[in-house]
Amino acid sequence: MTFARFEDIPAWQEAVRLAEGVYDMTESKNWPGSRSLQDQLERAALSVSNNIAEGFERGTTSELLAFIYISRGSAGEVRSMLCFLERRKAFGDFKSQISNLKSTAESCSRQLRGWADYLQNSEIKGQRHLNDKARRQYDAGKRAGDFQQELLEKLPPDHPLRKRSL
Predict the structure, then answer these.
(1) How far apart, in whole angstroms, are the C-alpha atoms of residue 40 and residue 81?
(2) pLDDT tens across 85-129, in order?
């Protein structure tokens, strides 16, 4: 699947949820942590979605992959800080929130890993490398694949061709 805007990418959307959750926690009037811990946690959380956006906008698959890995590293950094907070008694009132944020950070990492695997095994070089001829070939191949899928879906469920395509 291709995306026209980074805002449509599920991994970016999940990363924004992570940043929102972190900010909700750190901006709480009951936040017991230091300002420097708050700042580092917020920066790392926001870095996940920002690196997805920057990599996407670069226009090449190789640069996107590099930024996906940076983004994944930031998700790991957030998770590490959340693990630290779990161990601190002062954050006992935030236990549920921390647990939920760790799950969201793990979800970001999984999605980014899957996306990276897909891109590494893809022929796609990126938007910047598409000339008119390459775009036409790509579009024709996509239309042909979509049409083939549409035809398969119209076959009866027990048809041998439909079973083979699963």
Answers:
(1) 9
(2) 999 999 999 999 999 999 999 999 999 999 999 888 876 655 544
3 state DSSP class of 34? coil
Q: Give CA–CA dist 102/29, Å, rounded.
A: 21
Return the number of other C-beta atoms located less than 10 Å from residue 114's C-beta.
11
Q: How far apart are CA 63 and CA 100, in angstroms?
A: 31
What Å distances lie between residue 81 and 88, 96, 141, CA to CA? 11, 15, 45
Q: Which pair of structure tokens corresponds to residue 138?
A: 């790509």
pTM: 0.74
- Concatenating the DSSP letter of every residue in 16-50 gives HHHHHHHHHHHTSTT--S-HHHHHHHHHHHHHHHH
**77-113 in b/e burial notation, b at 16+ Cβ within 10 A?**
bbbebbeebeeeeebeebeebbeebbebbebbbebbe
Q: Report the C-alpha gap between 81 and 95 in whole angstroms.
A: 13
| Amino acid, single-letter form, for residue 51 | N
Helix (H), strand (E), coil (C) string for 74-116 = HHHHHHHHHHHHHHCHHHHHHHHHHHHHHHHHHHHHHHHHHHH
